[in-house]
TrEMBL record:
Described purpose of this protein according to its UniProt entry: One of several proteins that assist in the late maturation steps of the functional core of the 30S ribosomal subunit. Associates with free 30S ribosomal subunits (but not with 30S subunits that are part of 70S ribosomes or polysomes). Required for efficient processing of 16S rRNA. May interact with the 5'-terminal helix region of 16S rRNA.
Principal subcellular localization: cytoplasm
InterPro entries reported for this sequence: KH_dom-like_a/b, RbfA, RbfA_dom_sf
Keyword Cytoplasm found: yes
PANTHER family: RIBOSOME-BINDING FACTOR A, CHLOROPLASTIC-RELATED
Protein family membership: Belongs to the RbfA family.
Subcellular location: Cytoplasm
Gene that this polypeptide is encoded by: rbfA
UniProt protein name: Ribosome-binding factor A
């Protein structure tokens, strides 16, 4: 169960990471459309699990490799944005959120 502080920090990180991926997508990730769907933060606020939706989904693996290579850059930019609001900028762990593909698959199976 998430505490109030965890949910506030998660929303803050979601908003700021969404802006970072929107602004830096062309430079760092080859212009792919990357959406931050969910951020889950650990109780000690030291680790943030970031779930991403990537379009086109056929290039998900290559894009995730680029994102994992640029994690330090993304964390640095995030630190510049939230440095006055958080004592410690959390470590970032990126995961693919494939729930849209799953929903589409279920919809096709039901049709």
């Amino acid at each position: 169960m998430e505490t109030t502080r965890q949910s506030k920090v998660s929303r803050l990180l979601l908003k700021d990471l969404s802006e970072i991926f929107q602004m830096e997508s062309r430079n760092l990730f080859g212009g792919k459309m990357i959406s931050v769907t969910t951020v889950r933060i650990s109780p000690d606020l030291g680790l943030a699990k970031v779930y991403l939706s990537i379009f086109p989904s056929s290039e998900t693996e290559e894009t995730m490799k680029l994102i994992k290579m640029n994690t330090k850059n993304v964390r640095r930019i995030l630190g510049n944005k939230v440095g006055k609001q958080l004592r410690i900028v959390p470590e970032l762990a990126f995961f693919v959120d494939d729930s849209l593909d799953y929903i589409e698959n279920i919809s096709n199976l039901l049709s």
